[in-house]
Design goal:
This protein has 154 residues and is an alpha+beta fold. The protein contains four helices and seven strands, in the order E-H-H-E-E-E-H-E-H-E-E. A hairpin with a 2-residue loop joins strand 2 (43-48) and strand 3 (51-62).
Length: 154
């Protein structure tokens, strides 16, 4: 597997990864937006040749605080360490740029989604701390949980 980025320009391959995960990316408009964002945001990906197996896009809010905008690992490649590898790489990349805080938003535990229970566990296991729930940021059926991590705190 090769690491690519941060100027990825592989929108179609990232869209394919998202489409393999309907439990997480089942809203067509959001899926297309996340795929398009990989061409404009700093995005790291793992892949072989032209295929992308996993990717992570970052969004800058302030010079010292960024967000994991989107991260996805193809359904057939999950649980192989690709997400952890990308997240650790992104954290180092950000820390070298003086970024102190990294946040991510996911569906809160008040939803009964098993897919998002796995997502929350992934981030909690990697040192993120729940900060706040926004009940209607996305939609009432998708309450947003904000998690944060202080970079360099590993």
């Amino acid at each position: 597997m090769e690491l690519h980025g941060p100027d990825l320009q592989r929108e179609a391959q990232c869209e394919s990864v998202l489409r393999s995960l309907p439990g997480w990316f089942g809203i067509e408009e959001a899926l297309r937006r996340y795929a398009a964002d990989t061409a404009r945001l700093p995005t790291f990906a793992l892949g072989d040749g032209d295929s992308v197996v996993a990717f992570l896009s970052l969004a800058e809010h302030f010079a010292e605080s960024w967000e994991v905008h989107c991260m996805a690992v193809h359904a057939r490649a999950r649980h192989a360490g690709h997400g952890t590898y990308l997240l650790e790489h992104a954290q180092r990349w950000l820390a070298r740029r003086g970024v102190r805080f990294l946040q991510v938003k996911t569906v809160a535990h008040t939803s009964d989604s098993q897919a998002y229970a796995q997502t929350r566990q992934f981030y909690l296991a990697r040192g993120f701390t729940p900060l706040e729930i926004f009940p209607t940021l996305w939609a009432p059926q998708n309450p947003a949980l904000q998690l944060v991590k202080v970079l360099g705190s590993d």
